[in-house]
Design a protein that fits this description.
- The chain has a single domain (about 20-110), classed as Hypothetical Protein Aq_1857, Chain: A (Sandwich), CATH 2.60.300.12.
- About 15% of the residues lie in helices and about 40% in strands.
- The protein has helices at about 20-35, 85; strands spanning about 20, 40-45, 55-60, 65-70, 75-80, 90-95, 100-105, 110-115, 120.
- The N and C termini lie far apart (about 50 Å).
- The mean pLDDT is about 85.
């Protein structure tokens, strides 16, 4: 009696859930030092805006059981579990120019954004 073995295909490595750019990490470190020490940043996705979805960031005292923890640049950021499928591979950045400054999201899952840039769809 002979047995046949099927070779196991190697699993494709998944991209990280989310990463911080150097600028985003530096800005978060400043925020933690300037009054948010002991808090955690939670990122979620809400239904809102003309394209249907928007990013939401909140300071929380502790992680909830529904949060995924992302570590980047020695910082911990929480991601609401309901948002994980929308955020896989996203890089959070921080930009400043003459008119605006703030966190931005480079999300490979986005299929489009509204004209004002406040919401997106996948």
């Amino acid at each position: 009696m002979s047995t046949t073995t099927t070779p196991v295909k190697p699993r494709r490595e998944l991209p990280p859930l989310m990463q911080l750019s150097d600028a985003a990490a530096a800005r978060l470190q400043t925020l933690y030092a300037d009054g948010q020490e002991g808090k955690l940043l939670r990122i979620s996705v809400n239904t809102r805006g003309c394209s249907g979805m928007s990013y939401q960031m909140d300071w929380v005292d502790e992680a909830s059981p529904q949060d995924e923890q992302v570590s980047s640049h020695g910082l911990k950021v929480l991601v609401d579990r309901k948002a994980t499928l929308f955020l896989i591979g996203t890089v959070m950045d921080y930009t400043e120019d003459k008119l605006t400054r703030g966190f931005t999201f480079e999300n490979p899952n986005e299929k489009g954004r509204c004209g004002c840039g406040e919401s997106f769809h996948v």
